[in-house]
Design brief:
three-stranded parallel sheet, binds uracil, binds 1-O-pyrophosphono-5-O-phosphono-alpha-D-ribofuranose, 213 residues, nine-stranded mixed sheet, globular, magnesium
């Protein structure tokens, strides 16, 4: 893990870099792509939860009493930005099975690259939960910023964003749009192209996860 600034964390474990290289390859199959997205999300959420608060607990082992540590039980939610964010949910739930899942549908307009919200369903107590927004790609940042604005309107205070690949343009926009959010990413790429795709990136994450290429 590489803390690039107070709010940007690069998850660059060798296993992550290796799996991301396979993910980027245009010849990687949809099934393998989906599996890799899940595995990378598990590595990433492990890092994104490294600051969770602990409290002491007394446990009776078969040998003696032990004073151990357990999570303080702060409630969490994972919010995938549909569609591609769905591919990251199972990896997060592998580590945090008790997390609730809120769904937020966003689609970028092909010409303007502006996000259009088409679906939202959140846990009723979302305002009391720590929220992990997940989406493999942070390009212009528009979809992620719209998701955070939506969650802030609902009263969510603690938001972390997990992406797999980010463009510098998207990172700058995200940090400027919200003063508190923390970003976890497995890579920071070079730039965006004229279609607002990340270069070198990995193409259209949603299409590759769901085989709609
Ligand atoms: C992709 C991606 C992000 C968004 C990133 O979704 O999964 O949500 O674009 O671009 P941005 O940072 O410029 O907003 P897309 O709109 O293609 O929908 P999909 O997940 O259904 O494929
Ligand atoms: N959405 C994607 O899926 N890929 C990109 O490179 C940009 C937006």
């Amino acid at each position: 893990m590489n803390q690039l600034s107070e709010r940007v964390i690069l998850v660059d474990h060798p296993m992550v870099q290796h799996k991301l290289s396979i993910l980027r390859d245009k010849n990687t199959s949809s099934g393998q792509f989906r599996q890799l997205v899940r595995e990378l999300s598990l590595f990433e959420v492990y890092e994104a939860t490294s600051d969770l608060a602990l409290e002491p607990v007394h446990v009776e082992t078969p040998v003696a009493m032990a004073t151990c540590m357990q999570l303080t039980g702060r409630k969490m939610a994972v919010v995938p930005i549909l569609r591609a964010g769905l591919g990251m949910v199972d990896g997060v739930l592998d580590l945090i099975p008790a997390a609730r899942v809120g769904h937020l549908g966003m689609e970028r307009d092909h010409d303007t690259h502006e996000p259009h919200e088409y679906y939202a369903k959140m846990p009723r107590d979302i305002a009391e939960r720590d929220v992990l927004v997940v989406d493999p790609m942070l390009a212009t940042g528009g979809s992620c910023i719209a998701a955070i604005e939506y969650l802030r309107r609902l009263g969510v205070k603690n938001i972390k964003v997990m992406v797999l690949v980010a463009a510098p343009e998207g990172i700058d926009a995200l940090l400027a749009a919200d003063g508190d959010v923390r970003l976890y990413t497995c890579a920071i790429d070079e730039c965006l192209n004229e279609d607002a795709y990340i270069v070198p990136g990995l193409g259209d994450a949603g299409d590759r996860i769901f085989g709609t290429v």
